[in-house]
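Hey, resending since the last one bounced:
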Amino acid sequence: MNANHDSHEGDGFGTRAVHAGQPPDPLTGALMVPIYQNSTYRQRGPADPIDGYEYARTKNPTRSALERNLASLEGGRHGLCFASGLAAINTILNLLKSGDHVVAGDDLYGGTWRLFEKLYVGFGVTFTYVDLADLDALRRALRPNTRFVFAETPTNPLLKICDLAEVAKIAHAGGAKVVCDNTFATPYLQRPLALGCDIVVHSLTKYLGGHSDVIGGALIVSDDELAARLAFFQNAVGGVPGPQECFLVLRGTKTLHLRMDRHCQTAGRIARFLQSHPEVTKVYYPGLKEHPGHAIAAKQMNGFGGMISFVVKGDVERGKRVAARTRLFACAESLGGVESLIEHPPSMTHASIPAELRRARGLDDGLIRISCGVEDADDLERDLQQAIEAR
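The C-alpha cells again:
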C-alpha cells in the first residue's frame, strides 16, 4: 500500500501515466523501475527494516511503484495490487462477516458472480442483484445490514451504465460503501472516486496491462482507515503479484491514454457498422445515442470505451459460429489488449451463470462481445462482415 504523494499530482493524465510513482532509479538513473526479484531484505537490525521492506509478500519496490502509479491515475491516496482482479475483489469481501448484505448490479462478470454465489453465500453473506441504472430499485434493495453496493459501469457484457454519483449518494445515505469495477472504462475515461465511490477495482490483465501478457488486479481508495484494513488482508492472505507482473503493468500504463483513444475511435466506428447490418438485431455500446445510458456515460466518462456487445440472428450455435469465423478478431476470453478479441459470453465468460438466469438478465443466446484493438478499423470491419455473413 502506498499513499499517493507524487510530484506529478497536478500534471495531466499522460504525464502521470508515464512518470507518477516511478522516479529514475537513484543508483543508476534507470528510467524504468527495476524488477526487484527478491523475497527478503537485509535489515539494519532485528525488526528494523529499511523503509518498511522486510519480506516481499508485504512490500516490494516494483509493486510499490505500480501502486503509487495507479493511485495517481485514479486520483486516490492508496493503491494495492493483487495477483488477479478476482483476488482484489475477494479482498474487499474479506471485510464482510456472516449476516452482511451486498447489493450488486444484475449484469456482472461471470467470475464475480461465481465468487459471490459459490463462495460467500456459503459464509452467510447475502446478495441482491438489481439494475443499478434504476435508482428506485437500488433504494428498495438496500437493507440495514447492507455493507456494499457493487457496481460495474459499463457492465460486462451488456454495457449498462449507472450514474455513479447518484448511486454513491443513495448508498451512503443507507450506510453502505460503493465499490466500482472500473476495468472497462479505465481511469483515463472514468474516475469513480471523484464521483463519490469508496473503492475502485481493476483487473490489471485488461486495459492497464494492455498487451495480453500479464494477470493482475488492483484496489484504489482514498480513505486511510479503509486502506489499512485492505492492506492487512493483502498481506495476511498473500494474493499479491510478483515483480515481473508489476513491471509489465507499469509498461502498459505508460501508453494507456494513447491506446484508449484508439480503442474508443475504432469501437465507435464498428458499433455504427454493426447497427446497420441486417443480421444484427441488437448493439450494446454506450457511444450510440440510442443506448439508454448514453447521456449518463457522456456526463461521467471522457469516452465510451473499446468494448461492444451485439446479438446476431439465430440461436446459440449461430453466435458461436460467428465468434469462431473471424480471422483478425481472436476467439478468446479477456479483453483490453492491443489485439482485437471476440467471444461468446453464454458459452465462455458467463458460462458459470445458469442459462435461465442469463436469459432473464438479457444475455441472449446469440450475444457476442468484442474488444476492439488497435488494428486498422477497415480491416476489423471487413473481418466482422465476413464472419457474420458466412454460411
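The chain has two domains: 2-253, 256-389.

Sorry for the duplicate.
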